[in-house]
Amino acid sequence: MFWLKVFGHGFGILLATLLTQIGGLAWIIALMFRRRLLAFLLIYVGLWSATLVVAPHFGRVPLPCYGEALRAQSLFYCATARHYVSPDLAKVAQDAADEMAQRYPGTVTLYLDANLPFWDGFPLLPHLSHNDGEKLDLAFYYTDELGVYLPGKTRSLIGYWAFEALDQHICPERWPTLRWDFAWLQPLWAKRPLEPVRTGALVQILAADPRISKLFLEPPMTESLSLKGQKLRFQGCRAARHDDHLHIQL
Predict the structure, then answer these.
(1) How far apart are CA 146 and CA 166, in angstroms?
(2) 3-state SS string over the chain?
(3) pTM of the full predicted structure?
(4) Residue 67: other Cβ atoms inside 10 A
(5) d(Cα 131, Cα 128) in Å, to the nearest integer?
(6) How far apart are CA 91 and CA 64, in angstroms?
(7) Phi and psi at residue 21, to the nearest 5°
(8) What would the pLDDT profile of 48-95 be if each residue is shown by its tens digit?
(9) pLDDT along the chain (250 residues), means of 10
(10) Which of 85, 129, 198, 250 has the greatest number of C-beta atoms within 10 Å?
């Protein structure tokens, strides 16, 4: 029983660290208290708040959790401290969101996973990159079934894994791979068609920004949106699909 508890806490500390960086430390400190769940929550909130001050010394700043032009798709990304980027990337994202809101009033640009607050090279699971503050995932724009733009809405609960209905026979089946299809999940998502005008405009704005070096988007999707440019890349067959979100990096 003792070793089972040790294993359980060890696994929890490891998982909380990998997901949030600060969660593992909060778990360790909470073990000193009798009411551990309450202690963990209070300690985590304290560490999360302190991270806002400490992270800039590591070259990371938080993206806005709320906002009219740019905000998190879900508070999950903020609560787990996965919303940190370099100051330059934060400016790029805000500038692009502001430009979209200016071109198309009422447009809300949503971000998904960014980076954790500390240390280059620390992985942001399950991503292969997102480990240096210079990567960010952005959600697409969607409409209702009548074609009316839906501000701040995505098809899935977290913005990922709601893949567009495109021909995806571009990669051979391989293992191991992060190129998940999640075919069983697709019927569960909201029926919200892609808003091609706004989505294409966002890609063009970012591709024209000299601060951006690469954008990852599935080739069939770039073709369907009539997008071209040297910065538009295919991420490869072992990485996650990019027809559910847009990846940008400095």
Answers:
(1) 21
(2) CHHHHHHHHHHHHHHHHHHHCCHHHHHHHHCCCCCHHHHHHHHHHHHHHHHHHHHHHHCCEECCCCCCCEEECCHHHHHCCCCEECHHHHHHHHHHHHHHHHHCCCCCEEECCCECCCCCCCCCCCCCCCCCCCEEEECCCEECCCCCECCCCCCCCCCCCCCCCCCCCCCCCCCCCCCCCCCCCHHHCCCCCECHHHHHHHHHHHHHCCCCCEEECCHHHHHHCCCCCCCEECCCCCCCCCCCCEEEEC
(3) 0.91
(4) 14
(5) 8
(6) 11
(7) 70, -50
(8) 999 999 999 999 999 999 988 999 999 999 999 999 999 999 999 999
(9) 75 90 93 92 96 96 94 96 97 97 97 95 86 95 95 94 76 74 87 95 96 92 87 81 92
(10) 85
The token duo for 172 is 């051979």
Residue with tokens 């998502």: 189
Reported residue count of the chain is 250
Tokens 């503050």 belong to 133
Tokens 């079934």 found at: 145
